[in-house]
Amino acid sequence: MGELLLITDDIARGQRLSRDLGACGTWHVHDLYEDKLPGRQPNLIVSDVEALTSDALIRLRRVLAAMRGGEVPYLFLVHGNVARAEAQAQILGASATLSSTACTQQLLDALGRMHVQIQPIPASVWKQATEARHFLKQVLLSGAPITPAMADTGTDLVARAVGESGIYDWVRTVQQFDDATHQHCLLVAALAAAFSGVLGLRAADRHRLTKAALLHDVGKIHVPTQILNKPGKLTEAEMAVMRTHPVCGHAMLVGQGFEAVMLTVVRSHHEMLDGTGYPDGLTGWEIPDLVRLVTVCDVYGALIERRPYRAPMAGEKAYAILDGMTGRLDGDLVRAFQPIAAAFNPSMRKASHGHAAQSL
Fold this sequence. Notes:
Helix 5 (123-141) packs across helix 7 (167-174) and helix 8 runs antiparallel to helix 9. 40% of the residues are buried. Helix 1 (11-20) links the parallel strand 1 (3-8) and strand 2 (26-31). Mean pLDDT is 85; it is low at 346-360. By secondary structure, this protein is of the alpha/beta class. It has 19 helices and five strands.
């Protein structure tokens, strides 16, 4: 398996475990309370942390965020209360869990299955996604006005990458980014780029949809990070702050040369056909087609991405939720989105290898 990382809160116990599992490859045992991060990205990570205090969880999340680029498989060893530990494992985005009392052969079998099942992300895709991420961070954090030319550059980066690598590998890569807003914008823009292809839109309309999706959440730079990254349910007051981002984003782009429909997407992407959305409570025909398209991508993207309080949702389950929102979302567009969702369903990917879902 190559280089393996064992994160532990007891070095002596961790070293014993690494000796027992030596057949897997070369282990690096990392002390959870060591501030310096491990030097090289591993092929697989195991955490063996008995005392999962708040401080331990913060430290573990920090190490994982730094070392899991490229979707490195991660096994969470469960100590103590199983239900509580399983919830913690989900928050941390573990690929699998196993009791810390499991025998050596059970551990070896679990690690072997994980390594076989999770395919590495091509280096070219990682490079493209990183380039797009850096561009987006520079644009959003520079303090300078966002212009149509800037948005066009970012749109072309995403559209080219999705066209070359496919939506599945792009999303797997972006899911590893720890800055939630940039991750989400790049993910939704990629879904929009792929969706525009399925819909058979002409080139100019494909660019417009991808660009709108890339910009839709720009207002979140005005939301405090402690709210954006809160590892739990938001309070009513925090939710009220979160819900200011469409209006803030719209205000950021007004007067910068963007076409009216682009501004409408930024302001209205949380509107629902039945009037239950925000900020304006629009209904039915009041919501333009471009907004409806971005909203479908936005909802699905939010479901399949990692959040501070939960792991990514499986593609099939995410689509089922999307499909259940008919009446709030455009049902025709949700049905048209199904080939995109198929790219995140393992059984459907295998069945359609070399066909439409695989090429998305």
